[in-house]
Amino acid sequence: MPASDRHPEENGTTAQAAGARAGACTSPETARTAPSDARPGSGFLLRFHLAERLAHWLYALFFLGAFLSGVLMWAPATREWMGGARQTVSRYHAFVGLAMVLLPLLVMLVMDRHRLRQNLREVDLWTGEDRRWLLLALRGYSLRGKPMPAQGRFNAGQKLNVVLVTAMAVGFAATGGILMHKASLPAWLVTRALWLHGFLAVVACALFLGHLAHVFITRHGRHYLKGMVTGRVPEWLARERHQRWWEQHLGAEVSEKPMKEPEV
Length: 264
Ligand code: HEM
Ligand code: HEM
Known about the structure:
The protein is mostly helical. The chain has one domain (44-139, 146-249): Fumarate Reductase Cytochrome B subunit, CATH 1.20.950. The chain has twelve helices and two strands, in the order ααβααααααααβαα. A two-stranded antiparallel sheet has the order 1-2. The longest helix is centred in the last third of the chain and has 31 residues, at 187-217. It is elongated. Bound molecules: protoporphyrin IX containing FE (HEM) (2 copies).
């Protein structure tokens, strides 16, 4: 990535990280065990800008709100218990759902449009290494800690997650919009929209549980979580799991130690 394309915050971190390369940051163990490394610039790379973190947590918060209110309306016991209040819950649910889709988008558009464009480009670009990574991950290589093809800032699984979450946001908004106007629309359209809306809710819930499992069960999850909270991840994590991204930050010298790519 050319330096002019980078966020000012990112340029600072990169330069400092490059300066610190010969020290603790090149040793995964040192970086992991020395809490003083948490100082910006000493062995950490900027992974998420403020706008990205804000957008992610807003999406997560409103997703949970929409999910809970949706389940309350759907489960027969709570549906009966709510009685006439169901109409009000339905209205609030629809507003929470719309906020889930619109607020994160607005945050990115207002706060960091450049980064939004950059993320869209990154997620849209699938290299041969990405395809091989996904194939191997589906065969369980990544979970078993086997060597994987080098990846950019987002690995192929993370790219797929972004694509699925975005597609489902569009699906929720379209089917939810139909349900909001069900009184004035043909019954066949409302029935299909309701079915699709429920189906999307089940798929989104499964994807969300997989996402949480990745964050809380895997060896790297807690470092990714810190990245989504503070914006920064340890340099060794970038080197181990996002080598192409690490190379962009630290220059060509990294090819001293190429990662072995398995045969597919
Ligand atoms: C733009 C986003 C969304 C909009 C506009 C929206 C709107 C609606 C509306 C109008 C209803 C019908 C309520 C009724 O029958 O009176 C509904 C039902 C429901 N929604 Fe959403 N929703 C959205 C997002 C979500 C999300 C993200 C989830 C879950 C993750 C979800 C889960 C549900 C469930 C489970 C139902 C009940 C379906 C049933 O009764 O069978 N919705 N939604
Ligand atoms: C409240 C629980 C949640 C936690 C703890 C959590 C945690 C995280 C973390 C740590 C990352 C960064 C991974 C990385 O560095 O690439 C991330 C990324 C992401 N999250 Fe969440 N998240 C939560 C909820 C959600 C929800 C509800 C959605 C959408 C339905 C979501 C969608 C995404 C997407 C699309 C990404 C970027 C791609 C990826 O890294 O997989 N997250 N999340």
